[in-house]
Design goal:
By secondary structure, the chain is of the alpha/beta class. It folds into two domains: 59 residues; 94 residues, Beta Barrel (Barwin-like endoglucanases). It is built from two helices and six strands. The longest helix is centred in the first third of the chain and has 58 residues. It is rod-shaped.
Length: 157
């Protein structure tokens, strides 16, 4: 009887060890699967970033030039908030618009602006002559942060 009890205990211990080993293997498999998913997500994110960069480079394949860029808002005293082409910037504060000299960049052109992104040449300005542009931003502080800088632009179409 004692031998049977010892044999039963040994069998129970062996079954418990096997269960623990199976659980450990399952945990390892799950950890490996989670790691593979993380790696796949990181790879997809990297591919998306590369694709976006390639699209930007493709978009920016037209006439390029370096211009002096300042920023403006629609919130100044006396500003109507409506561009020369009729875009209401007060109702569309996230619109990507630049003011240009139409003899250099035709109104309605799509333009890639370094540090700003793709915009539409939809406005003009009294001080915007020659190779100068004004980028539209939604707040006075953003305009101050932009300051005056030399940027490369590419007229897309």
């Amino acid at each position: 009887e004692q031998e049977q009890a010892q044999a039963a205990q040994a069998q129970a211990a062996q079954e418990q060890a096997q269960k623990e080993q199976e659980q450990a293997q399952a945990a390892q498999a799950q950890a490996a699967q989670e790691q593979a998913q993380k790696e796949q997500a990181a790879q997809q994110q990297q591919q998306a970033a590369q694709q976006q960069q390639q699209q930007s480079q493709q978009q920016a394949s037209g006439k390029s030039m370096t211009v002096e860029a300042t920023a403006y808002t629609a919130n100044c005293a006396g500003c109507s908030g409506t561009t020369a082409t009729g875009v209401n910037l007060k109702s569309n504060p996230n619109q990507r618009v630049i003011a240009v000299d139409p003899s250099v960049i035709p109104l309605g052109s799509k333009v890639y602006v370094e540090g700003y992104g793709q915009a539409v040449a939809a406005d003009t300005g009294g001080a915007i002559k020659g190779n100068r542009i004004d980028v539209f931003v939604s707040s006075d502080s953003a305009a101050q942060d932009w300051g005056r800088r030399s940027v490369k632009i590419t007229v897309i179409d």
